[in-house]
């Protein structure tokens, strides 16, 4: 992440954090409390919570929510993508994040256009992660040579 992106990200977090509890409560009411029409809708509400936690750098909690969601619906492309983002951004865990993205990319049938969009996002994230990993390796080799 570049310094400019980091500053923008931190500014966004400082705006979002005060509203975290409000968003959490609203997502509970909308998706879990009032009128969930399907398991998928209920789990979509869980992903809203996980995204807010991720945006607040509460990666452990976000990962718990996503893992719980995937326990109920293991082939949920959006949850797999979010898990990959959490693993990569929060923990730098390239192998686990890559496995989540590959799971999405290996799915034969996507249920709808949104899932197809998630597939494209997964492809893009996988490419970005690979580029970042290669850049990290180049920097590490350059540092090693300087020593």
UniProtKB/TrEMBL annotation:
Which InterPro entries has this protein been placed in? TPR-like_helical_dom_sf
Give the highest taxon in the source lineage.
Bacteria
Q: Give the protein's recorded name.
A: Tetratricopeptide repeat-containing protein
Source organism: Candidatus Electrothrix aarhusensis
């Amino acid at each position: 992440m570049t310094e400019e992106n980091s500053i923008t990200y931190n500014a966004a977090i400082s705006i979002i954090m005060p509203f975290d509890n409000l968003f959490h409560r609203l997502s509970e009411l909308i998706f879990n409390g009032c009128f969930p029409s399907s398991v998928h809708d209920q789990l979509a509400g869980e992903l809203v919570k996980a995204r807010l936690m991720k945006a607040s750098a509460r990666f452990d909690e976000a990962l718990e929510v996503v893992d719980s969601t995937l326990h109920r619906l293991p082939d949920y492309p959006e949850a797999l993508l979010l898990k990959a983002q959490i693993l990569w951004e929060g923990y730098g865990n390239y192998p686990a994040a890559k496995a989540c993205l590959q799971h999405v990319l290996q799915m034969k049938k996507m249920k709808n256009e949104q899932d197809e969009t998630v597939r494209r996002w997964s492809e893009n994230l996988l490419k970005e992660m690979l580029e970042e990993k290669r850049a990290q390796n180049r920097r590490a080799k350059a540092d090693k040579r300087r020593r």
